[in-house]
Amino acid sequence: MQLITSEAEFAAILEMDRAIVFLDFAWSGQAGISAAAAEEWERTSHLWRLDCLVFKVRPDDLPAAAEWMGRAGKDLAGEGGYGSLVWLSRGTILDYEPYALGAGLRDISRRTRAAFKGVSGASARWPLWDRELDG
Predict the structure, then answer these.
(1) How far apart are CA 62 and CA 122, in angstroms?
(2) pLDDT at 128
(3) Domain ranges of the chain
(4) 35 vs 47: CA distance, rounded Å
(5) How far apart are CA 14 and CA 16, in angstroms?
(6) Is-contact 63 57, C-beta < 8 A?
(7) What pLDDT is attached to residue 3?
(8) Is 0.90 topped by the overall pTM?
(9) Which residues contact residue 49 at a Cβ distance below 8 angstroms, ignoring those fewer than 6 apart?
(10) Element (H or E) spanning 116, and its range?
(11) Record's superkingdom (predicted)?
(12) CA 24 → CA 32, 93, 121, 124, distances in Å?
């Protein structure tokens, strides 16, 4: 997962056709464990033939992300710090999992396929993505 550290990077994610955002909180041990699960899913996502990018966002360190969470809806505004996944298409929330570890790899893959069904891929538009790996 690529850690998003600037408001410009976060704004770029909100413009992508397909993106999964992992909400991480440094103060939360559960978020750290969920991050490991999300990273494992990302490493194996090619096995599921899922074309999307996964980003790690720390709302406590990125005011734009914290503000977005507050505007996004009650689920995100009340985020408990367990390490959540948010499936996005052009800033629209397609799905939300409050506890990535609890969801499991198969469920994350199933939900990714369902969330992005019919959404065109746009990974080539991500300016920080390594073009050699985008193939």
Answers:
(1) 24
(2) 39
(3) 2-125
(4) 19
(5) 6
(6) no
(7) 95
(8) no
(9) none
(10) helix 105-116
(11) Bacteria
(12) 7, 17, 25, 25
Top-tier CATH class for 2-125: alpha beta
Per-residue pLDDT for the chain (135 aa), expressed as one digit of tens each?
899 999 999 999 999 999 999 999 988 888 999 999 889 888 887 666 667 889 999 999 999 998 888 888 756 655 678 899 999 999 999 999 999 988 888 899 889 888 988 776 544 333 333 333 333
Q: CB under 8 Å to 46, separation ≥6 — which residues?
A: none
Strand partners, 87: 20, 95
**CA dihedral over 133, 26, 96, 44, signed as positive or negative:** positive
- Tokens 């056709």 belong to residue: 17
- Buried-exposed string 109-121: b where 16+ CB fall within 10 A, e elsewhere: bebbeebbeebee
